[in-house]
């Protein structure tokens, strides 16, 4: 399976912060925002990643992540000149995707929960059509909402419903088989001039090939698109890391645990950042792994 991180857009809700830099490069406590969605793909076992961003921001992401080889993955880059909708990612990334299934994760979404890697890998293995991820929210009227039957089969998707059929918001993580490329290419732009991800999901729903995996109690899903939510996400990460003594979305640690890099390689990555607490943490987990 291939993976796409969509890190484009203008981040207008975070102005003036994002007038000088990409939203997905802004810090969420101790690491850049893009580390969090990239970690999701790595935990799913995905090692070929396309990062889609604006022409102006691409050099900054390339400086941060390079070709991904330090994490045992491969990162390619593509431009989205204008925010023309989430589904445009599959048109832009068609050549990258090739004949493979693909996962799309939004660059400003943060996921956390015990056993998340196993859930992701199970979804990759059992993919049949598309798999979306639902998260219970207090105010489903603000989101796209999914309704499922007892077996987890998706029955309907409603955008910002006044009378929600459930409290399960559709998150910014999507798994698709290869048909998604042709579906996206065949979409007509919405009234906003965008290729809508909901139209992609509805195509699978009409075929009876859409499924919803619920991320319930014990999971966290955070959207960092506003000043308040960005601050809250940083505070969430800070509290969890201080209490548990672990680092969320530490790419070096994930690469080590997944067998993408050796303990010695992990230690070297930490040593390059040894003056920070983050670098010290990476060196420590590498030592414990035998470096």
Automatic annotation (TrEMBL):
Catalyzes the formation of dTDP-glucose, from dTTP and glucose 1-phosphate, as well as its pyrophosphorolysis. Belongs to the glucose-1-phosphate thymidylyltransferase family. InterPro entries: G1P_thy_trans_s, NTP_transferase_dom, Nucleotide-diphossugar_trans. Residues 2-237 form the Nucleotidyl transferase domain. The gene is rfbA. It is an enzyme of class 2 (transferase). Keywords: Magnesium, Metal-binding, Nucleotidyltransferase, Transferase. GO terms for molecular function: glucose-1-phosphate thymidylyltransferase activity. Its EC number is 2.7.7.24. This is Glucose-1-phosphate thymidylyltransferase. It comes from Saccharopolyspora griseoalba. Its cofactor is Mg(2+). It catalyses: dTTP + alpha-D-glucose 1-phosphate + H(+) = dTDP-alpha-D-glucose + diphosphate.
